[in-house]
Write a structure and sequence with these properties.
Number of strands: 2
Strand order of the largest sheet: 1-2
Number of domains: 2
Order of helices and strands: HHHHHHHHEEH
Helix content: 40-55%
Structural class: mainly alpha
Distance between the termini: 11 Å
Largest sheet: 2 strands, antiparallel
Amino acid sequence: MSTLVESKETLRTRCREAHLTDAEIDSLIANNITSLARLAFALGPPGTAPNDDQVRTLFTTGVGPNIGTLASVKRLIFEAQTMFVAEMKAKVQKKDDTQATLALAERDARIADQRKRLTGLRLRGDEECSHNSYALVLQIVERDTLTYLPPERFTTRRSELQQKKPGKELALDDEHVFFSRQDLHGNRQDFPYTRQKRSVMFDKD
């Protein structure tokens, strides 16, 4: 999982929106320009305007960018530098409880990949994970600190769109009386889809 400026899928999406061909995009990635963050520094620090010859060096041998491609890449470099500076500023000012956000292109690519690999799962309806579920796992990745996440925190996309929140019920064990979260179907933690969604979130190909 990657943030906006570190995501390869976001780079691909932005390149397509800037009208680069698939061959040109693959050439950039083959040259190890795999994210907007790398593109931002490929030809100098943010604020540096590259010339045409410098931009041509970003492409591997066999791809000859025309003047339109050069213009598009210069625009992408400017966007990448702007986004990188903005993300760094946000990280410096971010509070500890601020939730991370997974890049849209990264999330869509992950879901598409899982639907191909995990053929026994539908990953739709009650099995479709909420966007907040991705944010929970991304936060663990960014902090590089493993934290226990109870299954009931992994809600469905449907409930997220309906702005539903898990309820609470009074529970009793051998020694304590405590509040236990219910899932959005009115069942407790043993509802199968909550554990399944948590497993899907931590899946890594």
